[in-house]
Amino acid sequence: MIGSPGTPGIDVDTEARSFEVYFSDRSELTGKTYGTRTDKNGIHIYEQTKVGRKWRYCTHLFVVHAVIANHIIGGQIGEMLVEEKQISQEALDTALQDQQDERSRLLGEYLVTQKIVDAEELEGALSRQKNMPNLKLGEILVGEDLVTKAQLNEALKEQKKKRKGALGEILVGRGVIEKDQIQQALAKKLGIPFINLREFTVSPEL
After folding, report:
1. DSSP-derived secondary structure for 65-124
2. What is the 8-class DSSP label of residue 197?
3. pLDDT reported for residue 156
4. What is the pLDDT of residue 167?
5. If residue 43 lies in a helix (H) or strand (E), which one and from where to where?
6. Count of structural domains within the chain
7. What is the mean pLDDT of each run of 10 residues along the chain (206 residues)?
8. What is the CATH number of the domain that holds 21?
9. Strand 42-51 with 56-64, pairing
10. Is the Cβ–Cβ distance between 77 and 185 less than 8 Å?
11. Which 8-state DSSP code applies to residue 7?
């Protein structure tokens, strides 16, 4: 429980911020946090569990550095780019739809290849997904008893291995933003310095 922003040793926010932790085994952990602290062993995350009139309730999560591939505290890259007026909300929405379409395609290809569903069943599910944009393809397939939850989980693991079309790549590909701007935004989000080597003259002898 955190009572005030003055708790020693913790960077506490008055409002919960989103967090994303990506692990080396391609799994991920997401949620909202009131504060984080990084030490030599790993990252301490104070995940939001309940909001009261006076107190904020949280669970202390600890993740060791050795298992982390990447992490973002404070929102997704697309949201940050919009907030900083690097791109428009319309451009972000279009890129997110492209990203979702690509993920659905990869998932569908795997399910058809493994003969879990046939092409006709997949086409029908994709068509229904367009009418229910808040539902993911996997949720529709499970809901219609076309695949089991276990089969979906296995397919999602395979999808992550082959996943292409990260949001940043889509935005750059559409000419909405430059690659350097994406790299600067990511560096800011991760709290690390960004150095553009193009701005420096490097001796050929090095």
Report:
1. GGGEEEEEESS-HHHHHHHTTSS-HHHHHHHHHHHHHHHHHHHHHHHHHTTSS-HHHHHH
2. G
3. 74
4. 64
5. strand 42-51
6. 2
7. 45 67 85 84 87 75 90 71 80 79 76 82 78 70 82 75 61 76 65 53 56
8. 2.30.30.100
9. antiparallel
10. yes
11. -
Range of the domain at 170: 77-191
Phi-psi region of 162 (alpha: psi -120 to 50; beta: other; left: phi over 0): alpha
Decide which of 52, 73, 94 is a domain's last residue.
73
Write down the pLDDT at residue 18: 78
Residue 203 domain flag: no
d(CA 70, CA 47): 18
Report pTM. 0.41
Look at residue 35 in the predicted model and tell me its pLDDT. 78
Give me the sheet containing 28-38, strands edge to edge: 56-64, 42-51, 28-38, 11-23, 68-73
Cα of 39 vs its chain's centroid, Å:
23
Backbone angles phi, psi at 173, to 5 degrees: -60, -30
CB 64 within 8 A of CB 32: no
